[in-house]
Amino acid sequence: MTTSNFFEDPREQSLVKSEIVKKYFSAWSKIIIQTLKESGEDRLAYIDLFAGPGRYDDNTKSTPLLVLETAVENPDLSQMLVTIFNDKKQDNVASLENAILQIPNIDQLKFKPQIHNIEIDKTLVQQFENTRFIPTLLFVDPWGYKGLSLSLVNSVLKDWGCDCIFFFNYNRINMGLNNDKVKEHMDVLFGEERAGKLRNKLFALSAYDRELQIVEELSQAFHDYGYKYVLPFRFRNEKGNRTSHHLIFVTKSFRGYGIMKDIMAKESSSAEQGVPSFEYNPADITMPLLFELNRPIDELAGILLKEYANKTISFTDLYEEHSVGRRYIKRNYKDVLMQLENEGKIIANPPAPERRKNTFADHVVITFKNKP
Q1: Tens-digit pLDDT profile for the chain (372 aa)?
Q2: Residues 33 and 77 sit within 8 Å (Cβ to Cβ)
Q3: Of 144, 278, 302, 316, whose CB is crowded by the most CB atoms within 10 A?
């Protein structure tokens, strides 16, 4: 696929990606607006640096239009949201401008959408590094990898209330890591030292382990910047047998991490024992029998009993410290803890008879018994 026909067909993966971004933008903006009102501030922003033409060839809306429609429909957002869109192709800019003008009631937005036509490069990153951002959701969706860098993401995330979602083209980056012609791009994406070490590690790895290593190294690179909460969502190709992309979410806030985790869980194409795959597989070639052999809920029960033996902790604290980097969602933890309480392996305060049936509130305090 070339960049010229990237927007010809809104593949299912693209629709899922847009839905994830739209849902997170809606949830994030509600939280930010509430905080801004309390502090007397009145602006938040959405920035899309590779915005595209606004619509696919079959007229399906892409992410910029979905975000703007959300803003138009929300009285607070319509008066507070600053939107900045960019695309290096003039044809895409013209198409996006026209698509935005066709949104009903778009003139109700206090801040007119800004549309730019520039290349994303070091100069822009330097400008961002010297800018104090209002609360901003940054969306970065390059077709390949040019323009995507740790420095770019960090230049926005450094400020309060700023989160980032970027579309990570795994196939192209996997090939690019061992291509001297694009070494510079890989170095700015992973960091020069980390990219060098990663290249050495990849030679001996299987395709599956290679993917895990690449995503892990990218996550660790953000950890080095101080961003603890990194959440990847994998997209498979149409046949379902290879990874095509990852959608990567980065935030400084556990609250944002938890919200995005729930959104990605619901968009996952499969789940095992209620534990989401954090993957969209259009072919969905998984087999129910094999799912039964992999029982992640049972594994979680064993992990908690081992790691928290003889400890007392509230559910909120347990979930925040244990769920990071794991695909378990809040519902999974509560189901497991209710099961362990029923089996007499933990003590909950208040106990089950004093709670509503089949509930486990966030404030419940858990005492784990000796190691099994």
Answers
A1: 444 444 444 467 788 999 999 999 999 999 999 999 999 999 999 999 999 999 887 788 999 999 999 999 999 999 999 999 999 999 999 999 999 999 999 999 999 999 999 999 999 999 999 999 999 999 998 766 677 889 999 999 999 999 999 988 888 888 889 899 889 889 988 889 999 999 998 988 888 888 889 888 888 889 888 999 999 999 887 777 788 888 999 999 999 999 999 999 999 988 888 888 888 876 544 433 333 344 688 889 999 999 999 999 999 999 999 999 888 999 999 999 999 999 999 999 999 999 999 999 999 999 998 866
A2: yes
A3: 278
Q: Assess contact for 165 and 24: CB atoms under 8 A.
A: yes
Query: In angstroms, rounded to a whole number, what is the distance separating the alpha carbons of residues 355 and 214?
Result: 45
How far apart are alpha carbons 299 and 320 in whole angstroms?
A: 19
| Sequential DSSP letters for 37-53 | HHHT---EEEEESS-TT
Q: What are phi and psi of 31, to 5 degrees?
A: -65, -45
Domains in the chain (CATH in brackets) are 3-280 (3.40.50.150), 295-368 (1.10.10)
